[in-house]
Amino acid sequence: MPDPAKRCADVILRVHRLARTGALIDLGRLEHAKMVAAQARQVDVDGWLWEVIPAARTVYLQAAPEHLDEILVRLRDAPVAAVVQQERRLVEIPVRYDGQDLDYVAEQLRMDVDTFVHRHSTTEYEVEFFGFAPGQAFFGELPDDLRLPRRSVPRTRVPSGALAIANEFTIIYPEQSPGGWHLIGHRAGPPLWDPHADPPSRLRIGDRIRFRDVT
């Protein structure tokens, strides 16, 4: 548990001002990004913030330009506190573990494929943030023994729906795109992102995620 006496200023590494309305806050850890994002919403008692967007190790704030400095002062002085979890949905995503990197991943992790599939599919994840491409959710965190760095040479084309891992995250590519993650399978159910739907994403930050193996 974080120390309640510690201020957000103690975990903020840098603040980059972006034009008149934006600030990008650098943090060292995912849990700090989640806590600082939560505190930013808490200190905005006047409704000056327009957007709070957490990522793996950053938080982006956008606010009325005449009030952004005041929000940053309040945020730095706010205590670091555990994120209070509201009741969260459990979303089950059917997947097939048939990715072209699956054997390589298991070999690098020093386990057989069945063990990897069991470990990956029985872990519960959380939608931590969206990024890289519209609708691309980052599911965290992978257990330590399932983590690998990104590929040294990215692929120029990864198919839509590919299930992939790198570092502490799992993703499902929402569209065909380049990518440097290890492909372990693919989505077996309906798309998670439809730009013509309302809302376009079936997922939201904080959702609990389980991958159901239908291989």
Automatic annotation (TrEMBL):
<feature type="domain" description="Carboxyltransferase">
    <location>
        <begin position="13"/>
        <end position="203"/>
    </location>
</feature>
<dbReference type="InterPro" id="IPR029000">
    <property type="entry name" value="Cyclophilin-like_dom_sf"/>
</dbReference>
<dbReference type="GO" id="GO:0016787">
    <property type="term" value="F:hydrolase activity"/>
</dbReference>
<dbReference type="GO" id="GO:0005524">
    <property type="term" value="F:ATP binding"/>
</dbReference>
<keyword id="KW-0378">Hydrolase</keyword>
<dbReference type="InterPro" id="IPR010016">
    <property type="entry name" value="PxpB"/>
</dbReference>
<keyword id="KW-0547">Nucleotide-binding</keyword>
<dbReference type="Pfam" id="PF02682">
    <property type="entry name" value="CT_C_D"/>
</dbReference>
<keyword id="KW-0067">ATP-binding</keyword>
<dbReference type="InterPro" id="IPR003833">
    <property type="entry name" value="CT_C_D"/>
</dbReference>
<protein>
    <submittedName>
        <fullName>Sensor histidine kinase inhibitor, KipI family</fullName>
    </submittedName>
</protein>
